[in-house]
Amino acid sequence: MERAALFGNGREAPMDAGDVGELLIPYMPTIRVPKTGDRVYKTECAFSYDSPDSEGGLYVCMKTFLGFGREHVERHYRKTGQCVFMHLKRHTKEKVTGASGGALPKRRNTKLFLDLESNGDLNNDDYEYEDEAKLVIFPDHYEIPLPNIEELPALVTIACDAVLSSKSPYRKQDPDSWEDELQVSKHANSLVQMDNGVRIPPSGWKCSKCDLRENLWLNLTDGSVLCGKWFFDGSGGNGHALEHYKEMGYPLAVKLGTITPDGADVYSFDEEEPVLDPHIAKHLAHFGIDMLQMHVTENGLRDNDIKPRVSEWEVIQESGMKLKPMYGPGYTGMKNLGNSCYVSSIMQAIFSIPEFQRAYVGNLPRIFDYSPLDPTQDFNTQMAKLGHGLLSGQYSKPPVKSELIEQVMKEEHKPQHNGISPRMFKAFVSKGHPEFSSSRQQDAQEFFLHLINLIERNRIGSENPSDVFRFLVEERTQCCQSRKVRYTERVDYLMQLPVAMEAATNKDELIAYELKRREAETARRPPPEFVRARIPFSACLQAFSEPENVEDFWSSALQAKSAGVKTSRFASFPEYLVVQIKKFTFGLDWIPKKLDVSIDMPDLLDISHLRATGLQPGEEELPDISPPIIIPDDPKDGMMNHFMEPPDVDESSVMQLAEMGFPLEACRKAVYYTGNMGAEVAFNWIIAHMEEPDFAEPLAIPGYGATAYPGITGPGTPGLDNQPPEEMVAIIASMGFQRNVAIQALRATNNNLEHAVEWIFSHPDPEGNETASEAMVMENHMNANLLAESDPEGPRIKDGSGRYELFGFVSHMGTSTMSGHYVCHLKKEGRWVIYNDLKVCASERPPKELGYIYFYRRIPS
Questions:
Q1: C-beta separation of 364 from 384 below 8 A
Q2: Residues 667, 689: contact at Cβ < 8 Å?
Q3: Residues comprising the binding site for Zn(2+)?
Q4: Angle at 457 between CA 452 and CA 459, to 5 degrees
Q5: CA-to-CA distance for 654 and 213, rounded, in angstroms?
Q6: Alpha carbons 349 and 828: distance in angstroms, whole number
Q7: Residue positions in the annotated binding site?
Q8: Given a cut of 90, is residue 802 above it in pLDDT?
Q9: If we measure between CA atoms, which residue out of 861, 719, 714 comes closest to residue 799?
């Protein structure tokens, strides 16, 4: 047999059935039939945006079911030795015309078997598609056309049929998926609600059992607010909502933060799936939540808001203007997958920054060559793929001239790629996240911080492009009574500016508009022309720098609660400054709303006057004393009469931080000293204190005699033979030590986790624990690498001048972050460009005054 010219138009010479079967025998162990749960990528390359529509088609590995474009299939073959691939190609041809010159009558096309989207650049009435599949054997590129039932072994035929009929790999397998069609709960019509007087406020919620403030669920029977389950990425909760159901049997709960006039996310614990509740408005009203004051039209807008919101949509998208399309490198659009514009807008801005271009696209060959066997599940691979897709120009080519189209159509149309579909990228970065993994609209600011977190956790060696956003904030807290102060530092990645509504320069117009609007509403007339508040940027900057009151401030100087104020300043200025305008809020009537304002954002920004100054002459620092532990008046356990209650430490936040590689004791102190406000706040405490000599020492609290672990009793305290807490035993066991050794070490060190590990190393058992010790040393080295992000001077920052110039902004249209649309404007090559999903055009009037997130770059000194 001669080698087929796979990358040309060559075909393998016909073979009889015996030859085909004999040819495949050596490769049979590498051919699998997809099982339930296997993801088959038959529409998109793992390393590029090539598909069966592409000129070279797509190669699907018959063992891993990963898809590869022509440029990347050889890499997979070299890395894995996998030889058998299914090659998929969709051909696009001009339809045959009838005698009268028109297209022949439509008939069912039996030559289509790939679940692909048709090319939007083509008129489907003029073109027809034909799908082709064949097996290709590497390295000699032998081709076996499909279907070939008579000649192929039965196993191969079954495997090929299963691959071709497989569903999308992005169909969610998780039972918490919200993408499948929801069914009405069997409990909705007969739900009994307690008349217990519970009223739920529009904000400030927390779990009634653990004080968690995210992923909270309102039980529709008794009004209890409890946290949801724990997600692998560190988000989620402690599962108290499910525990409450198991204890009480109340079946339905609604997720707080998802309530809109369109409905809410409802989960049935009894049915173990998301459900519909047709009476959700009545069930929420029982607890004081009125979701029906805002009547929604088909486009998701309130009836009395249509006029102003349409205006907002028109201005931001520059509707009515003849915008010139842009093509080439850096001008590639992104397909909207259904409320995925928040991802597209942020990623367009991110990959306009040179540091991100160098980190991912510049390192693309190395990232791809060293990618894991499943590159679809590797963050850096998917970032490099997305960056290359946006910046290469390969998927942003101008339309072919009409005379060339006629010439091409005589043979075969070669479709022009217009934009990319970020489906694989979004599926990976949102995996396990309760909000981003849904198909609902999200807050672009929250996604930006989520992306930064992923970059931090998956950085390439010592290079971390997110450092360009990183800066230190100095917080000065002052006791109003003693006048003493405390200075602390935390890390942040964006500057949040409040909207100073009281500083509007058109107050008279706003008052007149509001009067007319109310009159029109009463008389049921059309609303007057909308008047947007005009806010000076200087007023927002001033509001940012003003002192704010500290709730529940405990003064260490007075050793009592007192009034306190806090001011924030920049201890360092980032290379790129991200500014968020805090437009979104909840009304007192529970209706999520956006402050529709116009702010004169400057092209040149100087915040040098916000530079931190540190402790000033004449200022006296607050003593470094922690708040006292409160002893309950009526301890539940009589044994605790002689001992103080252990401090309240949110163990879920502790474990989130510990998984990042920080010492457990430091994590516990961080959570305690930040008042159980969550892992993110505690993380900032760690960054500010990690250079202190007692950073990893156990949490010691004045007046508390034991190490601060929940469940620890004092020496000699009766009960379960001094059995160590199970969670500590599990932590040590996870390091590779035997369970009995872990228990013995904890007992010997009074349940001090750090000392217990040291005890194990200094007391090897007779049989030795060399393997576990080696594993522990390796883990310690890994943790040391994670902590090696800072030099002796402190956390890694790129300090410089506080003068910036605007180069991009993301705008939002709609009434809240849970609805609407995002658009990105970027300044490239001296002119503004609008990125609106797949449309990339030269901007005529960039609406800088209506943005939500602004991107500034530092002006070199």
A1: yes
A2: no
A3: 207, 210, 227, 240
A4: 85
A5: 15
A6: 11
A7: 207, 210, 227, 240
A8: yes
A9: 861
Give the active site residue among 45, 61, 341, 824.
Answer: 341
Q: How many residues does the chain have?
A: 861
Q: What confidence score (pLDDT) does residue 113 get?
A: 62
Question: Whole-angstrom distance between the N-terminal and C-terminal Cα of the chain?
Answer: 68
Q: What is the pLDDT of residue 735?
A: 67
d(CA 695, CA 692): 5
What confidence category does residue 391 fall into, taking pLDDT thresholds of 50, 70 and 90?
A: very high
Beta bridge partner(s), residue 578: 855
The CA-CA-CA angle for residues 631, 633, 635, to 5°, reads: 80
In sequence order, what DSSP letters do the residues of 497-553 get, joined into one string? EE--GGG-TTHHHHHHHHHHHHHHHHHTPPPPPP--EEE-HHHHHHHHHS-EEPTT-
> Residue 595: which of 515, 495, 499 has the closest Cα?
499
**841: which strand partners?**
325, 834
Tokens 């001008």 belong to residue: 331
Coil, strand or helix at 481: coil
One-letter identity of residue 743 = I
Distance between CA atoms of 548 and 553, rounded to whole angstroms?
12
CA dist 291 and 108 (Å) reads: 47
Taking the C-alpha atoms of residue 804 and residue 683, their distance in angstroms, rounded to an integer, is 28
Which residue has tokens 């059995």? 723
824 is catalytic: no
Beta bridge partners of 137: 84, 142
Count Cβ atoms below 10 Å from residue 625 Cβ, excluding itself. 12
Q: 217 by DSSP, 3-state: which? A: strand
pLDDT at 846 over 70: yes
Q: From CA 567, how far away is CA 579, in angstroms rounded?
A: 18
Q: Would you state the structure tokens that stand for residue 147, as one six-digit string?
A: 């279907």
130 forms beta bridges with: 91
Q: What is the dihedral of CA 338, 344, 346, 352, to 10 degrees?
A: 180
CA distances from 639 to 224, 603, 629, 725, 748 (A): 31, 66, 18, 17, 22
Tell me, rounded to whole angstroms, the distance of Cα 140 from its chain centroid.
43
What does the pLDDT look like over 134-159, one tens digit per residue? 999 999 899 999 887 778 888 999 99
Active site (annotated) includes residue 841 = no
Would you say 849 and 831 are in contact if contact means Cβ atoms under 8 Å apart?
A: no
Tokens at 162, concatenated: 């299963």
Contacts of 310 (CB under 8 A, 6+ apart): 301
* pLDDT value at residue 467: 94
Whether the predicted pLDDT of 434 surpasses 70: yes
How far apart are alpha carbons 171 and 166 in whole angstroms? 11
Catalytically annotated residue among 286, 821, 825, 841: 821
115: left (phi over 0), alpha (psi -120 to 50) or beta: beta
Pairing outcome for strands 67-68 and 58-61: antiparallel
